[in-house]
Batch of 2 targets.
Target 1
Amino acid sequence: MACLGTGGTLLIEPLLQELHRVIGFDSGGYFYPGADGELDAFMESPDVQASVPEHLDPGIQHSENLVFRNTLRAPGDIVLHEHGPRSMEQMLRDTSLETLLRSDYYNVVMRPAQVRDWLCLPLRTPQGQGVGMLFLFRSARAQPFQPEEVALLARLEHQLAYILQGGEMDAQDSEIHSEGVLVATLEGQPLWISPEAEALMPLAFGWRWRRGAQLPAALLELLRRLRAPSGRMELPAMRLHTAHGWFSLRAILMNAAHAPLPGQPEHAVALHITHRVARGVRLLSTLQTLALPQRQHELAWWLARGLSESQVAQRMGISLNTAVYHRRQLYNRLDVTGREELLSKLGHAVPARR
């Protein structure tokens, strides 16, 4: 984590991968303020991700309130939690573990997600604003989190908050990863979805997207703009970002002559979804697969980001001679002779940038 600057929610996936190396846990998750002002979630485990709608269901809230001291339903709830990491047992009210295991919250949310224990850590800016809530989950097969693991996560609190608050990564430092199309009526009834869009919808809209249900609010807003009379010629468009990257949404009115499906209504709308991924995030994921020593890992990051050796030395707090030594060690380890070969080895994850 030493080479990470601020980058926001886009860094949560590689950050969790780094945490796996220092704290043993089965899967991680992150609740954070979404682009629409509501609580959004990123979960490593598909089982845990599938439980998020149940966790946020108002009908389950009463059961959760009965067994836990604090709940997490909205971004404002992040700052209501105490500072520092807490285990699941510490969050329980004056009740026994058996009471939790009999609760609706456990049987509807935790058991299907195969979660038996967790560490949670609320993250705040220095000004006290909620950044997000980090969770490390363990299943029934694993031992509960130990005090030394809680203490280790506590030492990382400020660095984690710094990394995950909004930062320097932006859509200009990204590349198109995939595109897809969803066809719907003007009123919002889904008609057809491409395989690419099928994969993109949960990345863009998370727990709010379930096939067969109503379209997410952002897509409904695009359809409303398309129906509304306007003198402007621009097609309705929108951008949003999540922990998975940036998403561009466009709505284009179709006619029957171009209908992709038999029996399609006269007025159907093609909703185009474009997914962009931050180059820095791709670079981090690539570096993690190489399992480099810490200094070489950090050096490779800065070299791939376009910094000179003197700039790298300054960023790493080492002398220029030491930076040159680590660079030679890195090149030998990866069997490359220069920066161009290094970038090629890293899959052209990022272009040189100064």
Target 2
Amino acid sequence: MDSLGPRIKELRLEANLNKAALARRVGVSDVTISYWESGAIRQIGHERLVALSQALGCPLSRLLEGENGGRAAPLYLRSQPPAPWQDPAAGRIELPFELVPAQQWEGECFLLTPAPGEHFDFLSEGDLVAVAPTDIFHQTGLYLVEREGRHCIRRVSQDDDGKLLFSAEESDRVEGYTPDTRLLGKLVARWQTAPL
């Protein structure tokens, strides 16, 4: 898997920018750009990634996808099944470790964004999420869930007895597992759009 540092350098050269020019556009020092490109700094926050993609004139997905950058567009997440990755043309992404060091995920990931007019807890229009398809609970976090025949995003946790608990974004109400509830995928990374 390609690392993020070489991709930043490749995109910077494609954009015909030196490190100082890119640094000014992103709002960091040229030393920081050098550290990013060399991999000395492996964690880059969402706001910096967005600023970096804007300064490089490329979509954020290209920054995240490596050598296939720009080819696999984010898939639209809709409230109605099927899951977006069930489309045979759906492109998976390689998720660079340095973007989500807390996640130890091996397997497929898909880049999703809410479809126009669709609303989901924990996601706003334009947000991007990397979702790893799974029907197994791995750890407390956000999951794509099918409930009552509709897709939703829920924070999933376990109680002391091992029963799954589902909670919405702005609700104190916690729901338990029901026979019509299915885990579809775990959100392993989320990039939120910043208000302008």
